[in-house]
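Risk mitigation, structural track. In case the binding assays with pyridoxal-5'-phosphate fail to produce interpretable data, a predicted complex structure has been prepared as a fallback.
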Amino acid sequence: MLLLNPGPVTLTERVRRSLLQTDLCHRESEFFDVQEEARTRLVGVYGLDPAQWQAVLMTGSGTAAVESMIASLVPANGKLLIVENGVYGERITQIATQYGIAHEVAKHDWMQAPDIAGIVARLDADRAITHVAIIHHETTTGRLNDLRALGAACRERGVQMLVDGVSSFGSEAIDFDDTSIAAVAATANKCLHGVPGAAFVVVRRAALQQAASRTYYLDLARLAKLQDQRNTPFTPSVHAYYALVEALRELADEGGWTARHARYAALSGQVRSGLAARGIDSVLPADESSVVLRAFRLPAGVDYPTLHDGLKARGFVIYAGQGGLSSQLFRISTMGDIHAPDIERLLAAFDGIVR
Ligand SMILES: *Cc1c(COP(=O)(O)O)cnc(C)c1O
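Fallback model:
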């Protein structure tokens, strides 16, 4: 079965085998070597300066990392503006609400790109806003939100950006030189090709210094402090860390994030043109979409369950649209151990279902 959903991904044999390493006590130096290698390699994915940036690991899915980032990095007297144009932006609003974090929402239609001028007006109208949260790749629609324009506006106003990079870290450009970016939250089992259970926040050391402590388990500053001391507060998902380290080694061996970007671009282009030839249109133009995942309109006369079940019977798991989009579109991710011949077989499988 090939997984074409946006994580967890189809594993390479190399990463799968890494799960079978020796049992480790998480309070022994062997585990801390694994933890250290993961942290060092994560900072290295985008070639960041370890004097300025650190990777803080945690056990949980991508949402744990996003929650940790939001709950920890908006200071007690801070205020957050959340850019919403899909499910994951809405999730950040739910997190801010639940923690009682002062926040405003820049709400957009799910099909809309963030309205930068509108967001800038909000920042200017409310100088209490200290942080903006945005989804880099909004997996709801496959849209790649433009961080550059927003970053420029934030820099001018001394506002910091908190980025959900869960489905872009490791495969899309992220300009960490943009001094407005305080942190990027992500996970092992999307573009990095690890297994679920390990997540992380790549955070500026300076931002951690003003961190709030609203959460117990996901307290980013405490996690960072203990990890810096080759320690850990709780039992980590040791095997997921094994797999993350191996996946990061594999990423480096394959040429790093730019090579992964190129690979995804070729595969998603192949899906896009193959489906277009079959009369199935992508929802967004290529230049507004990530290379990681694309959303397509359901072909006339074929509902999602029919398409999903037909493809599954032929060995492929695709992904439904979320919320109100479930009756209109389907999504195909090209993360994981997926190659051009797999996409050819996928397109052939469509021919058996969509006529
Ligand atoms: C997958 C994803 C998440 C987190 O999902 P989990 O199921 O918790 O791993 C968060 N944000 C985005 C943009 C995602 O694609």
